[in-house]
Amino acid sequence: MAEGFLMEVCVDSVESAINAERGGAGRLELCSSLLEGGISPSIGLLQVVKQYVRIPVYTMIRPRGGDFLYSDREVEVMRKDIELVKSHGADGLVLGALTEDGRVDAELCMELLAVSRPLPVTFHRAFDIVHDPVVALETLASLGFERVLTSGCDCSALEGLPLIKRLVEQAKGRITIMPGGGITERNLQRILEGSGVLEFHCSARSSKDSSMKFRNSCVNMGASLTASEYGLKVADVCKVRTLNAIAKNTL
After folding, report:
1. 3-state secondary structure of 12
2. For a tag on the chain, would you pick the N or C end, based on fewer CB atoms within 10 A?
């Protein structure tokens, strides 16, 4: 962790978790399927990651990709996932839910926060598709979320920088604002200097070719637009170190 700034790295594999810690990450967001923006990881993944890293692991609670309007049965899954990851060593949780009109689902979030206690909870980038971010931030602060992850309701944290800065000013330390979304070594310094934040979120990934020698190029395991089965994305130790150094030099 760079002194003064905390870098959270989102990871979806044990290898990425280890690389993130080696590179200087201060915290992990653990999920599965980063291609979908991250969904709840398996208990097996959480257990093995906890065996290999010492930094805090915040676990994603998201039962599926897509929007953040959940059915009663999906909420049952979220409650059960919270109970399971708590009992298997999660240091914190990452979750969020919206109403059909694009507001924070305060009633559901209150219920999920109660199940999550005493673990700290981050409200994830569901925030970026709310109807009114100013109102949403007040709701999250009053509910007791520790932080909110946001790209400033734009396609990247750099483009959402003006709103991120306003959210930091609005929060007044009641809730942490953590920018995330498209953060790289090329824009991190500008985001940190222009926002007033103390934490940031990134994936810092590089492509890695599969070790498979035999390959069947005719078959895809998912939709035709998904990544090839013979290409992997993993957190890159060098990228994490570079981002950490930039944050340290921004002080």
Report:
1. coil
2. C
Tell me how far apart the alpha carbons of residues 181 and 45 are, in angstroms, rounded to a whole number: 24
Strands (E), the chain: 6-11, 27-30, 57-60, 92-95, 121-123, 147-150, 176-179, 199-202, 205-209, 231-235
pLDDT grade for 230, boundaries at 50, 70 and 90:
low
**Mean predicted confidence (pLDDT) in 145-168:** 97
Looking at every residue in the chain, the average pLDDT score rounds to 92
What's the pLDDT at 36?
85
Are 88 and 77 contacting, i.e. CB atoms less than 8 angstroms apart?
A: no
The pTM assigned to this predicted structure is 0.91
Closest-CA residue to 247 (of 54, 26, 53): 26
DSSP three-state, residue 115: helix
Domain 6-250, CATH homologous superfamily name and number: Copper homeostasis (CutC) domain (3.20.20.380)
Taking the alpha carbons of 79, 82, 84, 87 in that order, is the dihedral positive or negative? Answer: negative
| pLDDT for the residue 2 | 45
Domain residue ranges of the chain, discontinuous segments joined by +: 6-250
